[in-house]
Amino acid sequence: MDASSLMGSSSDAPTSGEHRMGTTIVGVCYNGGVVLAADSRTSTGMYVANRASDKISQLTDNVYVCRSGSAADTQVISDYVRYFLHQHTIQSGQPATVKVASNLVRLLAYQNKSMLQAGMIVGGWDKYEGGQIYSVPLGGTILRQPFAIGGSGSSYLYGLMDHEWRDGMTQEEAEKFVVKVVSLAIARDGASGGVVRTVTINADGVKRSFHPGNKLPLWHEELEPQNSLLDILAAGNPDAMVQ
Amino acid sequence: MDGSHANAASAPAAAGGGEGMQRTLNPYVTGNSVIAMKYKDGVIMACDTGASYGSTLRYKSVERIKAVGKHSLIGGSGEFSDFQEILRYLDELTLSDHMWDDGNSLGPKEIHAYLTRVMYNRRNKFDPLWNSLVLGGVKRGPKGDEKYLGMVNMIGTHFEENHIATGFGNHMAVPILRGEWREDLTFEEAVKLIEKCLLVLLYRDRSSINKFQIAKITTEGSTIYPPYALKTNWGFSAFENPSQGAVGTW
């Protein structure tokens, strides 16, 4: 059973329409809340339909969800869950807990499992349990984890997370970590790319960040971007490839 | 709450295009073998704490054995989301049982029968819960403390035995259990036997991981021990240079 074929882009012609988010999504807990991160590439087949999409959607003031898989399926799921949580908040008189939000996502994912291709990571902060991350992969399993990764790019991150993950990071360490991790996946996964978006949620509220593609660190075999070859030659020190 | 619950029930059908018909699916996140056996004081059950996603060992700290009511343990292999749903059905069942407040509580035999009906009826609709479930427990009956161990799988096949294994365990652990299980094993002997089976599965089942949980159930109640790892043995001289006499051999 090939799991990667479920998440990767099909060879549909660019005009056939089905938008998939071959994606890298990450969620980590730190010592005061959670940081969610995602790339920004949405593809239809080989064409990049949107190079700056926002894959981290708001469910409530204090709970957000990272979406991977079919763009349409995850949009509809988060719309329904936002709607239910809105009613739930009014009826209960207090913000929804992260557990309730994740379980609503699970309910839709599980009951419609034959029709959906949606892998999601729900993260948020509430006053009862603090920062929490819940993974809802294909099929509708729900698992609470200290960190979670998903999407086609996550294949390249399992080893890295095993090696580098630590519990109890500070907010700054966690934000830097997720940007590094997503940008490493972007470097190797053709279906991930663009910018790295992060959302930090804690007791003080929510902070959205934007890390443009040209500000991400460079990895193996990647070169410092230039304006033009002419600038390199003008600098007088070209790494000339002589015959 | 009622309003939003009604919406939750109808919305998925609408989201699915109104058809609502499912059919046999492929499993996504799957748990491995579960092994169990009767011993002197009750039933002992064990499994690893891994859940795979295809060939990726994706989740490594998953509890696949849970207590059910006062008298039983359930272990599940197969699609993990279906196992979580079965746990919810069992919550409902044990809650209504408790609400009868009649001094009686469902024993392992009854829970096994309930699960068998659920699994078989889903199979008949071509919409199975993709699991193999192991149900074990002890309940005081007219003949004393009656130990019970049974299993039911996604097509509704069910039976009772002194020892059970699901998945790869059927091939690797059952022969060991058939040879070495005896009536009235002590807890220590049972643990040793189970660990022998878990180790064989670790060596030979590609999807197993070295992190296990053992659980037991006696008339005193259930205990699920914390996860632990087993030492593996690679100290065979034949392992060191297998291609020496025959280059290219595997």
From TrEMBL, chain A:
Active site as annotated: T23 (nucleophile)
Gene Ontology molecular function: threonine-type endopeptidase activity
Catalysed reactions, semicolon-separated: Cleavage of peptide bonds with very broad specificity
GO terms, biological process: proteolysis involved in protein catabolic process
Cited InterPro entries: Ntn_hydrolases_N, Pept_T1A_subB, Proteasome_bsu_CS, Proteasome_sua/b, Proteasome_suB-type
Keywords: Cytoplasm, Hydrolase, Nucleus, Protease, Proteasome, Threonine protease, Zymogen
GO cellular component: cytoplasm; nucleus; proteasome core complex, beta-subunit complex
Entry's localization field: Cytoplasm; Nucleus
Subunit structure: Component of the proteasome complex.
Functional summary from the UniProt entry: The proteasome is a multicatalytic proteinase complex which is characterized by its ability to cleave peptides with Arg, Phe, Tyr, Leu, and Glu adjacent to the leaving group at neutral or slightly basic pH. The proteasome has an ATP-dependent proteolytic activity.
Similarity comment: family membership: Belongs to the peptidase T1B family.
Protein name per Swiss-Prot or TrEMBL: Proteasome subunit beta
Organism: Lolium multiflorum
Automatic annotation (TrEMBL), chain B:
Region spans: Disordered: 1-22
Annotated keywords: Cytoplasm, Nucleus, Proteasome
PROSITE patterns (UniProt xref): PROTEASOME_BETA_1 (PS00854), PROTEASOME_BETA_2 (PS51476)
UniProt entry tagged with the keyword Nucleus: yes
Subcellular location, principal: cytoplasm
Quaternary context: The 26S proteasome consists of a 20S proteasome core and two 19S regulatory subunits. The 20S proteasome core is composed of 28 subunits that are arranged in four stacked rings, resulting in a barrel-shaped structure. The two end rings are each formed by seven alpha subunits, and the two central rings are each formed by seven beta subunits. The catalytic chamber with the active sites is on the inside of the barrel.
Function: Non-catalytic component of the proteasome.
Protein name: Proteasome subunit beta
Species for this entry: Lolium multiflorum
